[in-house]
Specification:
Layout (H helix, E strand, L loop, with lengths): L11 H25 L7 E5 L6 H17 L3 E5 L6 H9 L6 E6 L1 H8 L11 E17 L7 H10 L5 E4 L5 H13 L4 E4 L5 H7 L5 E5 H9 L3 E6 L14 H4 L7 E9 L4 H15 L2 H9 L3 E2 L4 H22 L5
Parallel strand pairs: 1-2, 1-3, 5-6, 5-7
Antiparallel strand pairs: 3-9, 4-7, 4-8, 4-9, 4-10
Length: 335
């Protein structure tokens, strides 16, 4: 007599539970291994959406080097310029949110949403702010042929000659352009904008008397100020700049509430682990408190900051609608 085979029966629900339990254990182990690795375990890419040699690039390389020393790893600067910073910023937005791709953006990050309605990313939702790195105050300067020694004298002169005085900028929609448009809107003056394609040409024409005025970065124009080729009237920040302590602010000059300050800040892709973001923020603050770092940045006309992710997020959230209003009031369009 042949023995019947023994069949073990198991309900579907019990089998599924057993299988899910194994998978959950494997997944949990994998997570422990992944998150148990020290950070950073490989080089961090710091994307700079501007060419090498400019203020953003110089700041990124200085801060990146110091961050690498503090983190015990390496930070590689990757310049991806083009389209007013949109190309490089888009690379950061699309990167894996693992802490190994960061971006050093400038104030144009909050201007571009008003200029380009079809950006390939959301300037707020697609990023995790890390820290504001520096402020880059602008400075209102005029040629020596302009009979104004204060910001208010310049404003009164412009009011007396509506549509006759000129100002230059690095291009339509650039921070220097919008800084002057903000002044025009607040003080009710009419100036003619003469855009240039970046470079130092637009400042040289102020020095040469071909253009009446400009608002530009302190670092860019400081040599002309020191050599008395242009006259500095006021800085665009709320407090006086360390590089030009004798130059009053627009607010001190009588333009209440005026602030048009460029800045550089560190961002990560949205979804980057909170612990990594907070560690990067804390280390950035420590770097920006170093005496040698501060000395080099101030020498570039920059104001070292270093703050929390929440504070940088608040600045971005406030500036996007602010510059959008200026863009709409001035009727600025990018063709």
């Amino acid at each position: 007599m042949q023995a019947s085979p023994i069949r073990l029966k198991c309900s579907t629900s019990i089998g599924a539970t057993f299988l899910y339990g194994i998978l959950a254990s494997v997944f949990a182990f994998a997570c422990q291994v992944a998150f148990g690795q020290p950070y950073p375990a490989r080089p961090i890419r710091l994307v700079v959406p501007f060419p090498a040699g400019g203020g953003v690039d110089i700041s990124a390389r200085l801060v990146g080097q110091k961050l690498a020393e503090r983190l015990g790893g390496s930070v590689v600067v990757d310049n991806r310029s083009g389209a007013a910073g949109i190309i490089g910023t888009g690379i950061v937005a699309r990167a894996q949110p693992d802490g190994y791709t960061l971006g050093m953006v400038a104030a144009g990050h909050t201007i571009n949403p008003g200029l380009y309605p079809r950006l390939p990313y959301d300037a707020v939702k697609d990023f995790a702010p890390i820290s504001l790195v520096v402020l880059a105050p602008g400075i209102l300067v005029v040629g020596l042929n302009v009979r104004a020694r204060t910001a208010m004298e310049f404003i009164e002169l412009a009011r007396a000659k509506p549509g006759q005085m000129t100002f230059s900028s690095a291009g339509t929609g650039s921070p220097p352009h919008l800084a002057m448009e903000l002044l025009k809107t607040m003080m009710g003056i009419d100036l003619i904008h003469v855009p240039y394609k970046g470079g130092a040409e637009y400042m040289a024409d102020v020095a040469g008397g071909r253009i009446d005025a400009t608002i530009t970065s302190i670092a860019a124009v400081l040599p002309l100020v020191k050599s008395s080729r242009v006259r500095a009237l006021a800085v665009s920040s709320r407090t006086r700049a360390a590089a030009t302590p004798d130059v009053s602010t627009m607010i001190e000059a009588g333009v209440r509430g005026y602030e048009a300050v460029s800045w550089y800040g560190l961002l990560a892709p949205a979804g980057t682990p909170r612990g990594i973001v907070e560690r990067l923020s804390a280390e950035t603050v420590r770097v920006l408190r170093m005496d040698d770092v501060r000395e080099r940045l101030i020498g570039q006309g920059l104001e070292p900051v270093g703050n929390t992710p929440q504070e940088l997020a608040a600045r971005i959230g406030e500036e996007i609608p602010k510059w959008n209003r200026v863009i709409q009031a001035a009727g600025i369009r990018i063709e």
